[in-house]
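Reviewer 2 asked us to include a model.

Predict the structure of this chain.
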Amino acid sequence: MKSTKQSVGYRGANRAMLRSRSRRALWFGGKMIGGLVWWELILARIIGRARVEKGRMNRLVMLARNFRRLAVKLGGVWIKLGQYISTRVDMLPQEIIAELADLQDAVPPEDSAAMLALIESELNHPVGELFEEFDREPVAAASFGQAHLALLRTGQRVVVKVQRPFMDEIVDVDLASLRTIGRWAQLYRPLSRRANVFLLIKEFAEGVLAELDYEQEASNAERFAVNFAADPAVRIPKTYRELSTRRVLVLENVEEIKITDYEGLQSAGVSRKAVAAKLFQTYLQQIFVDGFFHADPHPGNLFVQPLDAQMASAMKIKTEQTPGVSETPGVSGSPTPFLLVFVDFGMVGKVTPAYMKELKEFIIATSLKDARRLTAAAQRMGFFLPDADVRRIEQAIGLLFERFWGMTVNDLSDVDFTEMYSFAVQFRDLLSTLPFQIPQNILYLGRAINILSGMSTALDPQFNAWKEIQPFAKDIAGGGAARTAQDVLNEVLRIARITIQLPGQIDNLHPQTLNGQLEVKAQLSQSSTQDLRRLEGSVSRLTWAFVFAALAIAGTLLLINQFAVAGAICMLLGVIALVRIMVK
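Predicted model (C-alpha coordinates):
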Protein backbone atom coordinates (compact mmCIF):
# COMPACT_ATOMS: atom_id res chain seq x y z
CA MET A 1 0.00 0.00 0.00
CA LYS A 2 2.89 2.33 0.77
CA SER A 3 4.39 1.79 -2.67
CA THR A 4 1.03 2.61 -4.27
CA LYS A 5 0.85 5.93 -2.45
CA GLN A 6 4.35 6.82 -3.55
CA SER A 7 3.49 5.93 -7.11
CA VAL A 8 0.35 8.09 -7.11
CA GLY A 9 2.25 10.98 -5.56
CA TYR A 10 4.95 10.66 -8.18
CA ARG A 11 2.33 10.73 -10.93
CA GLY A 12 0.86 13.98 -9.54
CA ALA A 13 4.28 15.62 -9.40
CA ASN A 14 5.06 14.22 -12.83
CA ARG A 15 2.11 16.05 -14.45
CA ALA A 16 3.36 19.41 -13.25
CA MET A 17 6.87 18.51 -14.36
CA LEU A 18 5.62 17.48 -17.82
CA ARG A 19 3.99 20.86 -18.37
CA SER A 20 7.13 22.63 -17.20
CA ARG A 21 9.51 20.66 -19.46
CA SER A 22 7.20 21.16 -22.45
CA ARG A 23 7.14 24.92 -21.91
CA ARG A 24 10.93 25.07 -21.54
CA ALA A 25 11.51 23.04 -24.71
CA LEU A 26 9.03 25.06 -26.79
CA TRP A 27 10.44 28.34 -25.49
CA PHE A 28 13.95 27.25 -26.50
CA GLY A 29 12.73 26.09 -29.93
CA GLY A 30 10.82 29.33 -30.50
CA LYS A 31 13.84 31.45 -29.59
CA MET A 32 16.06 29.35 -31.85
CA ILE A 33 13.81 29.70 -34.93
CA GLY A 34 13.11 33.35 -34.19
CA GLY A 35 16.82 34.10 -33.88
CA LEU A 36 17.57 32.44 -37.20
CA VAL A 37 14.82 34.36 -38.98
CA TRP A 38 15.90 37.66 -37.40
CA TRP A 39 19.58 37.31 -38.27
CA GLU A 40 19.44 35.44 -41.59
CA LEU A 41 16.31 36.83 -43.23
CA ILE A 42 15.69 40.26 -41.75
CA LEU A 43 18.86 41.74 -40.29
CA ALA A 44 20.91 40.49 -43.25
CA ARG A 45 18.83 42.81 -45.48
CA ILE A 46 19.46 45.75 -43.20
CA ILE A 47 23.14 45.55 -42.19
CA GLY A 48 24.34 43.33 -45.03
CA ARG A 49 24.84 39.60 -45.38
CA ALA A 50 28.61 39.85 -45.01
CA ARG A 51 28.31 41.26 -41.49
CA VAL A 52 25.77 38.61 -40.54
CA GLU A 53 27.97 35.81 -41.89
CA LYS A 54 30.95 37.12 -39.94
CA GLY A 55 29.40 36.28 -36.58
CA ARG A 56 27.31 33.28 -37.66
CA MET A 57 29.57 30.56 -36.30
CA ASN A 58 29.82 32.18 -32.87
CA ARG A 59 26.02 32.39 -32.71
CA LEU A 60 25.60 28.75 -33.73
CA VAL A 61 28.16 27.60 -31.16
CA MET A 62 26.35 29.58 -28.47
CA LEU A 63 23.06 28.02 -29.61
CA ALA A 64 24.55 24.53 -29.33
CA ARG A 65 25.92 25.41 -25.89
CA ASN A 66 22.50 26.59 -24.71
CA PHE A 67 20.89 23.43 -26.07
CA ARG A 68 23.45 21.37 -24.20
CA ARG A 69 22.47 23.09 -20.94
CA LEU A 70 18.79 22.43 -21.69
CA ALA A 71 19.48 18.75 -22.44
CA VAL A 72 21.46 18.23 -19.25
CA LYS A 73 18.71 19.92 -17.24
CA LEU A 74 15.78 18.03 -18.77
CA GLY A 75 17.47 14.71 -19.58
CA GLY A 76 15.29 12.14 -21.31
CA VAL A 77 14.73 12.67 -25.00
CA TRP A 78 16.80 15.85 -25.12
CA ILE A 79 20.09 14.18 -24.25
CA LYS A 80 19.35 11.53 -26.87
CA LEU A 81 18.58 14.31 -29.37
CA GLY A 82 21.93 15.98 -28.65
CA GLN A 83 23.73 12.69 -29.23
CA TYR A 84 21.75 12.19 -32.45
CA ILE A 85 22.48 15.71 -33.73
CA SER A 86 26.18 15.24 -33.06
CA THR A 87 26.20 12.46 -35.70
CA ARG A 88 24.85 14.71 -38.47
CA VAL A 89 28.25 15.58 -39.88
CA ASP A 90 26.60 16.02 -43.28
CA MET A 91 24.46 18.94 -42.09
CA LEU A 92 26.30 20.65 -39.25
CA PRO A 93 29.75 22.25 -38.97
CA GLN A 94 32.42 20.63 -36.84
CA GLU A 95 32.21 23.36 -34.21
CA ILE A 96 28.59 22.39 -33.46
CA ILE A 97 29.42 18.69 -33.47
CA ALA A 98 32.21 19.31 -30.95
CA GLU A 99 29.84 21.07 -28.54
CA LEU A 100 27.48 18.09 -28.45
CA ALA A 101 29.80 15.13 -29.10
CA ASP A 102 30.39 14.20 -25.45
CA LEU A 103 26.84 14.81 -24.22
CA GLN A 104 26.21 11.85 -21.91
CA ASP A 105 23.32 10.37 -19.96
CA ALA A 106 24.75 11.89 -16.77
CA VAL A 107 21.58 12.18 -14.69
CA PRO A 108 20.93 11.55 -10.98
CA PRO A 109 19.63 8.07 -10.07
CA GLU A 110 15.94 7.54 -9.36
CA ASP A 111 14.70 6.96 -5.81
CA SER A 112 15.31 3.27 -5.05
CA ALA A 113 11.88 2.81 -3.44
CA ALA A 114 10.18 3.88 -6.67
CA MET A 115 12.34 1.51 -8.73
CA LEU A 116 11.70 -1.45 -6.40
CA ALA A 117 7.96 -0.75 -6.58
CA LEU A 118 8.14 -0.73 -10.36
CA ILE A 119 10.01 -4.08 -10.45
CA GLU A 120 7.44 -5.68 -8.14
CA SER A 121 4.57 -4.27 -10.20
CA GLU A 122 6.06 -5.55 -13.47
CA LEU A 123 7.05 -9.03 -12.20
CA ASN A 124 4.12 -9.52 -9.76
CA HIS A 125 6.42 -10.66 -6.93
CA PRO A 126 8.31 -8.97 -4.08
CA VAL A 127 11.96 -8.28 -4.89
CA GLY A 128 12.98 -10.51 -1.93
CA GLU A 129 11.29 -13.51 -3.55
CA LEU A 130 12.85 -12.89 -6.95
CA PHE A 131 16.46 -12.28 -5.91
CA GLU A 132 18.75 -13.67 -3.24
CA GLU A 133 20.51 -10.30 -3.14
CA PHE A 134 19.58 -6.94 -4.68
CA ASP A 135 21.77 -3.84 -4.52
CA ARG A 136 19.47 -0.86 -4.01
CA GLU A 137 22.17 1.55 -5.24
CA PRO A 138 22.40 1.54 -9.05
CA VAL A 139 25.70 0.86 -10.77
CA ALA A 140 24.66 3.08 -13.69
CA ALA A 141 21.96 5.70 -14.26
CA ALA A 142 20.84 7.04 -17.62
CA SER A 143 18.02 9.19 -18.94
CA PHE A 144 15.61 6.34 -19.57
CA GLY A 145 16.54 3.89 -16.82
CA GLN A 146 19.18 2.56 -14.47
CA ALA A 147 20.92 -0.73 -13.68
CA HIS A 148 21.21 -2.63 -10.38
CA LEU A 149 23.37 -5.61 -9.49
CA ALA A 150 21.58 -8.65 -8.12
CA LEU A 151 22.01 -12.35 -7.32
CA LEU A 152 19.40 -14.88 -8.43
CA ARG A 153 18.28 -17.60 -6.03
CA THR A 154 19.94 -20.08 -8.39
CA GLY A 155 23.31 -18.38 -7.77
CA GLN A 156 23.76 -16.48 -11.05
CA ARG A 157 24.93 -12.89 -10.84
CA VAL A 158 22.79 -10.61 -12.98
CA VAL A 159 22.21 -6.99 -13.93
CA VAL A 160 18.66 -5.68 -13.59
CA LYS A 161 17.80 -2.83 -15.94
CA VAL A 162 14.78 -0.84 -14.76
CA GLN A 163 13.01 1.90 -16.64
CA ARG A 164 12.32 5.11 -14.76
CA PRO A 165 8.71 5.61 -13.63
CA PHE A 166 6.35 7.17 -16.18
CA MET A 167 9.04 7.26 -18.86
CA ASP A 168 6.43 6.65 -21.56
CA GLU A 169 4.58 9.85 -20.58
CA ILE A 170 7.80 11.87 -20.44
CA VAL A 171 8.91 10.64 -23.87
CA ASP A 172 5.47 11.33 -25.38
CA VAL A 173 5.54 14.93 -24.14
CA ASP A 174 9.14 15.47 -25.27
CA LEU A 175 8.48 14.06 -28.74
CA ALA A 176 5.33 16.16 -29.08
CA SER A 177 7.37 19.27 -28.22
CA LEU A 178 10.05 18.23 -30.69
CA ARG A 179 7.49 17.73 -33.48
CA THR A 180 6.09 21.21 -32.83
CA ILE A 181 9.57 22.72 -33.03
CA GLY A 182 10.10 20.70 -36.21
CA ARG A 183 7.00 22.26 -37.81
CA TRP A 184 8.38 25.70 -37.00
CA ALA A 185 11.81 24.78 -38.35
CA GLN A 186 10.34 23.46 -41.60
CA LEU A 187 9.03 26.98 -42.31
CA TYR A 188 12.62 28.27 -42.29
CA ARG A 189 13.49 27.74 -45.96
CA PRO A 190 17.31 27.64 -45.69
CA LEU A 191 16.90 24.68 -43.32
CA SER A 192 14.04 22.93 -45.14
CA ARG A 193 15.98 23.09 -48.42
CA ARG A 194 18.90 21.32 -46.77
CA ALA A 195 17.09 18.66 -44.74
CA ASN A 196 13.72 16.98 -44.37
CA VAL A 197 13.10 17.95 -40.76
CA PHE A 198 9.97 15.79 -40.44
CA LEU A 199 11.81 12.71 -41.68
CA LEU A 200 14.72 13.30 -39.30
CA ILE A 201 12.37 13.64 -36.33
CA LYS A 202 10.44 10.54 -37.40
CA GLU A 203 13.62 8.47 -37.54
CA PHE A 204 14.84 9.83 -34.23
CA ALA A 205 11.48 9.11 -32.56
CA GLU A 206 11.50 5.52 -33.83
CA GLY A 207 14.94 4.98 -32.32
CA VAL A 208 13.88 6.46 -28.97
CA LEU A 209 10.72 4.35 -28.76
CA ALA A 210 12.73 1.22 -29.63
CA GLU A 211 15.09 1.93 -26.71
CA LEU A 212 12.13 2.04 -24.33
CA ASP A 213 11.12 -1.53 -25.20
CA TYR A 214 13.28 -3.86 -23.09
CA GLU A 215 11.64 -6.92 -24.63
CA GLN A 216 12.99 -5.81 -28.00
CA GLU A 217 16.42 -5.32 -26.42
CA ALA A 218 16.27 -8.90 -25.12
CA SER A 219 15.47 -10.10 -28.65
CA ASN A 220 18.40 -8.09 -30.00
CA ALA A 221 20.77 -9.69 -27.48
CA GLU A 222 19.54 -13.16 -28.42
CA ARG A 223 20.03 -12.43 -32.11
CA PHE A 224 23.61 -11.28 -31.49
CA ALA A 225 24.23 -14.48 -29.54
CA VAL A 226 23.07 -16.53 -32.53
CA ASN A 227 25.14 -14.48 -34.99
CA PHE A 228 28.35 -15.01 -32.95
CA ALA A 229 27.63 -18.58 -31.89
CA ALA A 230 30.49 -19.79 -34.12
CA ASP A 231 32.99 -17.32 -32.62
CA PRO A 232 33.99 -18.44 -29.11
CA ALA A 233 36.02 -15.23 -28.59
CA VAL A 234 32.87 -13.04 -28.50
CA ARG A 235 30.60 -13.14 -25.45
CA ILE A 236 26.99 -11.96 -25.41
CA PRO A 237 25.16 -11.93 -22.03
CA LYS A 238 22.33 -14.38 -21.46
CA THR A 239 18.85 -12.91 -21.08
CA TYR A 240 16.41 -14.15 -18.44
CA ARG A 241 13.09 -13.89 -20.25
CA GLU A 242 11.05 -15.17 -17.32
CA LEU A 243 12.22 -12.13 -15.31
CA SER A 244 11.93 -9.57 -18.10
CA THR A 245 9.14 -7.31 -19.35
CA ARG A 246 8.90 -4.20 -21.49
CA ARG A 247 10.17 -2.10 -18.56
CA VAL A 248 12.43 -4.56 -16.68
CA LEU A 249 15.28 -6.56 -18.20
CA VAL A 250 17.45 -9.12 -16.37
CA LEU A 251 20.76 -10.02 -18.02
CA GLU A 252 23.76 -12.12 -17.09
CA ASN A 253 26.41 -10.00 -15.38
CA VAL A 254 29.37 -10.10 -17.77
CA GLU A 255 31.20 -6.98 -16.60
CA GLU A 256 34.95 -7.45 -16.82
CA ILE A 257 37.78 -5.07 -17.77
CA LYS A 258 36.41 -2.01 -19.54
CA ILE A 259 37.84 -1.80 -23.05
CA THR A 260 39.34 1.64 -22.29
CA ASP A 261 40.98 0.48 -19.04
CA TYR A 262 44.44 0.28 -20.60
CA GLU A 263 46.23 -0.31 -17.30
CA GLY A 264 43.85 -3.16 -16.51
CA LEU A 265 44.48 -4.74 -19.91
CA GLN A 266 48.22 -4.45 -19.48
CA SER A 267 48.11 -5.94 -15.97
CA ALA A 268 46.12 -8.88 -17.32
CA GLY A 269 48.65 -9.37 -20.14
CA VAL A 270 46.09 -8.68 -22.87
CA SER A 271 47.42 -7.15 -26.07
CA ARG A 272 45.69 -3.86 -26.84
CA LYS A 273 46.61 -4.34 -30.48
CA ALA A 274 44.82 -7.69 -30.50
CA VAL A 275 41.74 -6.16 -28.86
CA ALA A 276 41.60 -3.39 -31.50
CA ALA A 277 41.89 -5.90 -34.33
CA LYS A 278 39.25 -8.20 -32.81
CA LEU A 279 36.85 -5.32 -32.27
CA PHE A 280 37.26 -4.23 -35.89
CA GLN A 281 36.74 -7.77 -37.18
CA THR A 282 33.54 -8.23 -35.19
CA TYR A 283 32.11 -5.10 -36.76
CA LEU A 284 33.05 -6.23 -40.24
CA GLN A 285 30.99 -9.35 -39.57
CA GLN A 286 28.09 -7.43 -38.03
CA ILE A 287 27.85 -4.96 -40.90
CA PHE A 288 28.83 -6.92 -44.00
CA VAL A 289 27.79 -10.47 -43.09
CA ASP A 290 24.96 -10.27 -40.56
CA GLY A 291 23.48 -6.92 -41.58
CA PHE A 292 22.71 -6.34 -37.90
CA PHE A 293 25.09 -4.32 -35.74
CA HIS A 294 25.52 -2.86 -32.27
CA ALA A 295 24.94 0.87 -32.89
CA ASP A 296 26.23 2.17 -29.56
CA PRO A 297 29.75 0.76 -29.07
CA HIS A 298 30.90 3.31 -26.51
CA PRO A 299 33.42 2.24 -23.80
CA GLY A 300 30.70 1.51 -21.23
CA ASN A 301 29.21 -1.17 -23.48
CA LEU A 302 32.40 -3.11 -24.28
CA PHE A 303 34.52 -5.24 -21.95
CA VAL A 304 37.46 -7.61 -22.22
CA GLN A 305 37.50 -10.87 -20.25
CA PRO A 306 40.99 -12.40 -19.83
CA LEU A 307 41.17 -16.20 -19.90
CA ASP A 308 43.60 -18.63 -18.36
CA ALA A 309 45.26 -21.19 -20.62
CA GLN A 310 42.99 -24.04 -19.50
CA MET A 311 39.77 -22.12 -20.14
CA ALA A 312 41.07 -20.83 -23.49
CA SER A 313 41.92 -24.37 -24.55
CA ALA A 314 38.49 -25.66 -23.51
CA MET A 315 36.81 -22.88 -25.52
CA LYS A 316 39.18 -23.47 -28.46
CA ILE A 317 40.49 -19.91 -28.35
CA LYS A 318 44.01 -19.45 -29.58
CA THR A 319 46.44 -17.39 -27.55
CA GLU A 320 47.26 -15.31 -30.59
CA GLN A 321 43.77 -14.41 -31.74
CA THR A 322 44.80 -12.07 -34.52
CA PRO A 323 47.34 -12.92 -37.26
CA GLY A 324 50.54 -11.03 -36.69
CA VAL A 325 49.59 -9.91 -33.18
CA SER A 326 51.79 -11.20 -30.43
CA GLU A 327 53.13 -8.22 -28.54
CA THR A 328 51.70 -6.63 -25.41
CA PRO A 329 53.25 -3.27 -24.43
CA GLY A 330 55.04 -3.67 -21.14
CA VAL A 331 54.30 -7.38 -20.82
CA SER A 332 56.77 -10.14 -21.63
CA GLY A 333 55.84 -13.46 -23.13
CA SER A 334 52.78 -14.45 -25.13
CA PRO A 335 49.65 -12.29 -24.76
CA THR A 336 46.76 -13.51 -22.64
CA PRO A 337 43.77 -14.88 -24.58
CA PHE A 338 40.52 -13.00 -24.03
CA LEU A 339 36.84 -12.67 -24.81
CA LEU A 340 35.37 -9.50 -26.31
CA VAL A 341 32.16 -8.78 -24.37
CA PHE A 342 29.22 -6.70 -25.66
CA VAL A 343 26.42 -5.31 -23.47
CA ASP A 344 23.41 -2.99 -23.92
CA PHE A 345 21.56 -3.87 -27.11
CA GLY A 346 18.90 -1.17 -27.03
CA MET A 347 20.36 0.69 -30.01
CA VAL A 348 20.97 -1.52 -33.02
CA GLY A 349 21.27 -0.88 -36.73
CA LYS A 350 20.17 -2.94 -39.69
CA VAL A 351 21.60 -3.11 -43.19
CA THR A 352 19.17 -4.10 -45.95
CA PRO A 353 20.33 -6.49 -48.70
CA ALA A 354 20.45 -3.60 -51.20
CA TYR A 355 22.65 -1.54 -48.90
CA MET A 356 24.71 -4.60 -48.08
CA LYS A 357 25.58 -4.94 -51.75
CA GLU A 358 26.63 -1.29 -52.01
CA LEU A 359 28.59 -1.41 -48.74
CA LYS A 360 30.55 -4.34 -50.13
CA GLU A 361 31.22 -2.20 -53.20
CA PHE A 362 32.56 0.43 -50.80
CA ILE A 363 34.92 -2.07 -49.24
CA ILE A 364 36.19 -3.40 -52.57
CA ALA A 365 36.56 0.09 -54.08
CA THR A 366 38.45 1.33 -51.02
CA SER A 367 40.76 -1.67 -51.08
CA LEU A 368 41.46 -1.14 -54.80
CA LYS A 369 41.64 2.68 -54.50
CA ASP A 370 38.97 2.84 -57.21
CA ALA A 371 37.45 6.33 -56.93
CA ARG A 372 34.95 5.83 -59.76
CA ARG A 373 33.59 2.62 -58.27
CA LEU A 374 33.31 4.14 -54.79
CA THR A 375 31.59 7.28 -56.10
CA ALA A 376 29.07 5.24 -58.10
CA ALA A 377 28.21 3.13 -55.05
CA ALA A 378 27.84 6.26 -52.90
CA GLN A 379 25.51 7.82 -55.45
CA ARG A 380 23.31 4.72 -55.59
CA MET A 381 23.07 4.76 -51.81
CA GLY A 382 21.90 8.38 -51.79
CA PHE A 383 24.98 10.04 -50.30
CA PHE A 384 24.80 12.97 -52.75
CA LEU A 385 22.19 15.66 -53.12
CA PRO A 386 20.28 15.62 -56.43
CA ASP A 387 22.25 18.54 -57.94
CA ALA A 388 25.67 17.26 -56.86
CA ASP A 389 28.51 17.30 -59.40
CA VAL A 390 29.35 13.58 -59.24
CA ARG A 391 32.36 13.79 -61.56
CA ARG A 392 33.84 16.53 -59.40
CA ILE A 393 33.32 14.43 -56.29
CA GLU A 394 35.02 11.51 -58.04
CA GLN A 395 38.04 13.72 -58.75
CA ALA A 396 38.24 14.71 -55.08
CA ILE A 397 38.01 11.10 -53.90
CA GLY A 398 40.68 10.07 -56.40
CA LEU A 399 43.04 12.74 -55.10
CA LEU A 400 42.37 11.71 -51.50
CA PHE A 401 43.13 8.08 -52.38
CA GLU A 402 46.32 9.12 -54.15
CA ARG A 403 47.59 11.20 -51.25
CA PHE A 404 46.20 9.66 -48.05
CA TRP A 405 45.38 6.00 -48.76
CA GLY A 406 47.14 3.68 -46.33
CA MET A 407 47.81 6.28 -43.64
CA THR A 408 46.97 5.65 -40.01
CA VAL A 409 44.89 8.14 -38.06
CA ASN A 410 48.04 9.41 -36.37
CA ASP A 411 49.70 9.89 -39.77
CA LEU A 412 46.71 11.92 -40.94
CA SER A 413 46.93 14.15 -37.88
CA ASP A 414 50.51 15.02 -38.87
CA VAL A 415 49.64 16.09 -42.43
CA ASP A 416 50.95 19.57 -43.19
CA PHE A 417 48.27 22.26 -42.97
CA THR A 418 49.38 23.81 -46.28
CA GLU A 419 48.64 20.51 -48.03
CA MET A 420 45.13 20.36 -46.62
CA TYR A 421 44.64 24.03 -47.49
CA SER A 422 45.76 23.34 -51.05
CA PHE A 423 43.18 20.55 -51.31
CA ALA A 424 40.50 22.87 -49.90
CA VAL A 425 41.35 25.55 -52.48
CA GLN A 426 41.32 23.05 -55.36
CA PHE A 427 37.89 21.73 -54.37
CA ARG A 428 36.46 24.87 -52.80
CA ASP A 429 33.32 24.48 -54.95
CA LEU A 430 32.49 21.19 -53.20
CA LEU A 431 33.39 22.49 -49.75
CA SER A 432 31.25 25.60 -50.21
CA THR A 433 28.15 23.79 -51.50
CA LEU A 434 28.58 20.55 -49.48
CA PRO A 435 26.49 18.42 -51.87
CA PHE A 436 26.52 15.49 -49.44
CA GLN A 437 23.96 13.91 -47.16
CA ILE A 438 23.86 10.85 -44.93
CA PRO A 439 21.00 8.51 -45.87
CA GLN A 440 18.61 7.96 -43.00
CA ASN A 441 19.08 4.20 -42.79
CA ILE A 442 22.85 4.54 -42.65
CA LEU A 443 23.02 7.11 -39.83
CA TYR A 444 23.49 4.59 -36.97
CA LEU A 445 26.21 2.92 -39.00
CA GLY A 446 28.10 6.20 -39.34
CA ARG A 447 27.80 6.84 -35.62
CA ALA A 448 29.04 3.34 -34.76
CA ILE A 449 31.99 3.59 -37.16
CA ASN A 450 32.94 6.99 -35.75
CA ILE A 451 33.03 5.66 -32.17
CA LEU A 452 34.72 2.46 -33.30
CA SER A 453 37.45 4.35 -35.11
CA GLY A 454 38.27 6.38 -32.01
CA MET A 455 38.42 3.33 -29.74
CA SER A 456 40.54 1.28 -32.16
CA THR A 457 43.08 4.07 -32.51
CA ALA A 458 43.18 4.65 -28.75
CA LEU A 459 43.81 0.93 -28.18
CA ASP A 460 46.45 0.76 -30.90
CA PRO A 461 47.92 4.10 -32.08
CA GLN A 462 49.26 2.31 -35.17
CA PHE A 463 45.90 0.76 -36.02
CA ASN A 464 45.47 0.90 -39.79
CA ALA A 465 41.92 0.26 -40.99
CA TRP A 466 43.09 0.21 -44.63
CA LYS A 467 45.26 -2.83 -43.99
CA GLU A 468 42.75 -4.54 -41.69
CA ILE A 469 40.01 -4.26 -44.28
CA GLN A 470 41.99 -5.64 -47.22
CA PRO A 471 41.74 -9.36 -46.32
CA PHE A 472 38.03 -8.93 -45.78
CA ALA A 473 37.70 -7.13 -49.12
CA LYS A 474 39.53 -9.96 -50.89
CA ASP A 475 37.14 -12.48 -49.33
CA ILE A 476 34.17 -10.46 -50.55
CA ALA A 477 35.58 -9.96 -54.04
CA GLY A 478 36.72 -13.55 -54.40
CA GLY A 479 33.82 -15.21 -52.63
CA GLY A 480 31.57 -15.39 -55.64
CA ALA A 481 33.42 -16.53 -58.73
CA ALA A 482 30.21 -17.56 -60.46
CA ARG A 483 28.64 -14.21 -59.69
CA THR A 484 31.74 -12.42 -61.03
CA ALA A 485 31.56 -14.44 -64.26
CA GLN A 486 27.90 -13.49 -64.61
CA ASP A 487 28.79 -9.81 -64.12
CA VAL A 488 31.39 -10.07 -66.88
CA LEU A 489 28.86 -11.75 -69.18
CA ASN A 490 26.29 -9.04 -68.47
CA GLU A 491 28.83 -6.33 -69.29
CA VAL A 492 29.76 -8.06 -72.57
CA LEU A 493 26.07 -8.28 -73.53
CA ARG A 494 25.54 -4.61 -72.66
CA ILE A 495 28.45 -3.52 -74.88
CA ALA A 496 27.25 -5.79 -77.69
CA ARG A 497 23.73 -4.35 -77.48
CA ILE A 498 25.10 -0.80 -77.71
CA THR A 499 27.28 -1.77 -80.67
CA ILE A 500 24.32 -3.31 -82.55
CA GLN A 501 22.11 -0.27 -81.92
CA LEU A 502 24.75 2.31 -82.87
CA PRO A 503 24.32 2.20 -86.74
CA GLY A 504 20.57 2.71 -86.42
CA GLN A 505 21.03 5.64 -84.06
CA ILE A 506 23.47 7.27 -86.51
CA ASP A 507 20.93 6.81 -89.36
CA ASN A 508 18.31 8.60 -87.27
CA LEU A 509 20.72 11.40 -86.36
CA HIS A 510 21.74 12.17 -90.00
CA PRO A 511 18.32 13.30 -91.42
CA GLN A 512 17.58 15.30 -88.24
CA THR A 513 20.82 17.20 -88.75
CA LEU A 514 20.02 17.94 -92.43
CA ASN A 515 16.44 19.08 -91.68
CA GLY A 516 17.44 21.39 -88.84
CA GLN A 517 15.62 19.27 -86.26
CA LEU A 518 18.65 18.47 -84.14
CA GLU A 519 18.35 19.81 -80.62
CA VAL A 520 21.37 20.45 -78.42
CA LYS A 521 20.79 20.54 -74.67
CA ALA A 522 23.41 22.14 -72.48
CA GLN A 523 23.57 21.94 -68.71
CA LEU A 524 25.01 24.86 -66.83
CA SER A 525 27.62 24.29 -64.20
CA GLN A 526 26.58 24.57 -60.60
CA SER A 527 28.31 27.93 -60.15
CA SER A 528 26.58 29.33 -63.26
CA THR A 529 23.23 28.10 -62.00
CA GLN A 530 23.82 29.81 -58.67
CA ASP A 531 24.76 33.06 -60.45
CA LEU A 532 21.51 32.91 -62.43
CA ARG A 533 19.53 32.29 -59.26
CA ARG A 534 21.17 35.28 -57.58
CA LEU A 535 20.40 37.41 -60.65
CA GLU A 536 16.80 36.21 -60.63
CA GLY A 537 16.54 37.12 -56.94
CA SER A 538 17.95 40.59 -57.58
CA VAL A 539 15.48 41.23 -60.42
CA SER A 540 12.62 40.01 -58.23
CA ARG A 541 13.64 42.33 -55.39
CA LEU A 542 13.97 45.25 -57.81
CA THR A 543 10.45 44.59 -59.10
CA TRP A 544 9.05 44.54 -55.60
CA ALA A 545 10.95 47.76 -54.85
CA PHE A 546 9.16 49.48 -57.71
CA VAL A 547 5.85 48.14 -56.41
CA PHE A 548 6.64 49.46 -52.92
CA ALA A 549 7.61 52.90 -54.25
CA ALA A 550 4.50 53.15 -56.39
CA LEU A 551 2.19 52.13 -53.55
CA ALA A 552 3.92 54.49 -51.10
CA ILE A 553 3.58 57.46 -53.48
CA ALA A 554 -0.02 56.61 -54.34
CA GLY A 555 -0.93 56.21 -50.68
CA THR A 556 0.67 59.53 -49.79
CA LEU A 557 -1.21 61.37 -52.57
CA LEU A 558 -4.51 59.79 -51.59
CA LEU A 559 -4.04 60.73 -47.93
CA ILE A 560 -3.13 64.30 -48.86
CA ASN A 561 -6.32 64.53 -50.93
CA GLN A 562 -8.33 63.18 -47.98
CA PHE A 563 -9.05 59.72 -49.46
CA ALA A 564 -8.24 58.12 -46.12
CA VAL A 565 -9.43 54.56 -46.70
CA ALA A 566 -7.84 54.15 -50.14
CA GLY A 567 -4.64 55.79 -48.91
CA ALA A 568 -4.44 53.47 -45.91
CA ILE A 569 -4.94 50.41 -48.14
CA CYS A 570 -2.12 51.54 -50.44
CA MET A 571 0.16 52.13 -47.47
CA LEU A 572 -0.64 48.66 -46.07
CA LEU A 573 0.07 47.02 -49.43
CA GLY A 574 3.32 49.00 -49.58
CA VAL A 575 4.37 47.57 -46.20
CA ILE A 576 3.64 44.05 -47.47
CA ALA A 577 5.79 44.73 -50.54
CA LEU A 578 8.61 45.99 -48.28
CA VAL A 579 8.46 42.83 -46.16
CA ARG A 580 8.54 40.78 -49.36
CA ILE A 581 11.75 42.56 -50.40
CA MET A 582 13.38 41.84 -47.04
CA VAL A 583 12.55 38.11 -46.86
CA LYS A 584 12.98 37.25 -50.55
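The longest strand covers residues 145-152. DSSP finds 25 helices and eleven strands in the chain. We have added this to the supplementary material.
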